Amino acid sequence: QLELAESGGDLVQAGGSLRLSCAASGIIFDINSWNWYRQARGKQREWVAGIISGGRTNYADSVKGRFTISRGDAKYTVYLEMNSLKPEDTAIYYCNANIRRTGSGRYDDYWGQGTQVTVSS
């Protein structure tokens, strides 16, 4: 079974910081990209940040300059450092990875179950 699991969500005051983590487990041949998404209650899911196999990162305008995505020392881990948090950042944050399983000739998207981030005003 191939699974992704997020952790690190919490309740914080505006201006605070959090670091989210995501780990993939299973029989994996390669992961060529990671992405973080978030979904606020009553709103559609939006893309937040991404990193490709070469290390290049991209961010949504709403978080640029405040959030940083990075790969961990462990091969199948990714992080999202969130600084200067605002109430509008409140959402469930989801980890996404484009993964080629061992024995497969293609890459597929996998999703974690999400971790709640709540920023109080």
* Contiguous runs where pLDDT drops below 50 for at least 5 residues: none
Shape type: elongated
Which percent band covers the strand fraction? over 45%
The largest pleated sheet is described as: 7 strands, mixed
Report the helical percentage: under 10%
Structural class: mainly beta
Cα(first) to Cα(last) distance is 40 Å
Q: How many H/I helical runs? A: 0
Instruction: Specify Rg, calculated over alpha carbons.
Output: 14 Å
> What's the total count of β strands?
11
How are helices and strands ordered from N to C?
EEEEEEEEEEE
Query: What is the average of the pLDDT values?
Result: 96
Q: What can you tell me about this protein's structure?
A:
The chain is mostly beta strands. Helix content is 0%, strand content 58%. The chain has no helices and 11 strands. The chain has strands spanning 3-7, 11-13, 18-25, 28-39, 46-52, 57-59, 67-71, 77-82, 91-101, 108-111, 115-120. The strands form 2 sheets. Strands 2, 4, 5, 6, 9, 10 and 11 form a 7-stranded mixed β-sheet that branches. It starts with a strand and ends with a strand. The model has no long low-confidence stretch (mean pLDDT 96).
